[in-house]
Design a protein that fits this description.
This protein has 225 residues and is α/β, with parallel strands linked by helices. It has one domain: Spore Coat Polysaccharide Biosynthesis Protein SpsA, Chain A, CATH 3.90.550.10. The chain is 38% helix and 16% strand. The chain has a 7-stranded mixed β-sheet with strand order 3-2-1-4-6-5-7, sandwiched between helices. Helix 1 links the parallel strand 1 and strand 2. Helix 1 runs parallel beside helix 2 and helix 5 runs parallel beside helix 8. The longest helix is centred in the middle third of the chain and has 18 residues. It is globular.
Length: 225
């Protein structure tokens, strides 16, 4: 518990046995619930997570969004924190981000990685792709945002059903932020965080996933909420 709130951390994973061990071991003691979503891994991700005290949820439908929908639907805490199982997002800033959410009276905080504190933590093509997608988000939705693709969010669990993101794939990340931005009763902001080099094998297919994210942004722009 942190500031009288129950805290749930949700981590989607596909073959992240090395990374998930480090992430779970580094989480602050204030975290009440750790939910690891095993997205049909072929390694020991689920076993490692369970041994370290996480509740493992299985999701056979492959995809970042499918994993998140399974994990977020299982949350019991009042505040949700999301992050990847590869060690890139800063567990050391979880409480700091929750402070920002509570002190500013917000409902949803997206952790912004930019400008990168450690430039080498992200390769050049990923930086370019993130920039293109973030600028496109600004143009389409007329809302300034520094990092439309961040995978670390801190939000009140009570608003998740209101946001109702649909994507089973990588666009889930931009979709949940846009849903929060467009919702008339949800208070949204970003908070600057550190970003670390990845542990383990890269799963992102930058050209395919980048184009899918771009096309999904166009779809969201012309889909009424």
């Amino acid at each position: 518990m942190y500031r009288e709130k129950n805290i749930s951390v949700v981590i989607p994973c596909y073959n992240e046995e090395e990374g998930i061990a480090r992430v779970i071991s580094s989480l602050p003691e204030s975290v009440d619930e750790i939910i690891v979503v095993d997205n049909d891994s072929s390694d020991r991700t689920a076993e490692v997570a369970r041994e370290l005290g996480a509740r493992v949820v299985f999701e056979k439908i492959k995809g970042y969004g499918a994993a998140y929908k399974a994990g977020l639907s299982a949350v019991k805490g009042q505040i949700v924190v999301t992050m990847d199982g590869d060690g890139t997002y800063p567990v050391e800033q979880i409480e700091e981000c929750i402070d920002y959410l509570i002190d500013k009276g917000l409902d949803f905080v997206s952790a912004s990685r930019f400008p990168l504190k450690t430039p080498g933590a992200m390769n050049t093509w990923n930086k370019i792709g993130n920039t293109v997608l973030t600028i496109t988000t600004l143009v389409l939705f007329m809302r300034g945002i520094r990092d439309s693709q961040s995978g670390m969010w801190i939000f009140k669990s009570s608003i998740y059903k209101e946001l109702d993101p649909k994507s089973d794939g990588m666009p889930f990340s931009e979709e949940i932020k846009i849903a929060a931005i467009r919702h008339p009763e949800v208070k949204f902001d970003e908070y600057k965080v550190n970003y670390h080099p990845r542990i383990g094998e890269v799963k992102l297919q930058k050209w395919r996933d980048g184009m899918r994210n771009l096309l999904y942004l166009l779809k969201l722009r012309f889909t009424p909420r």
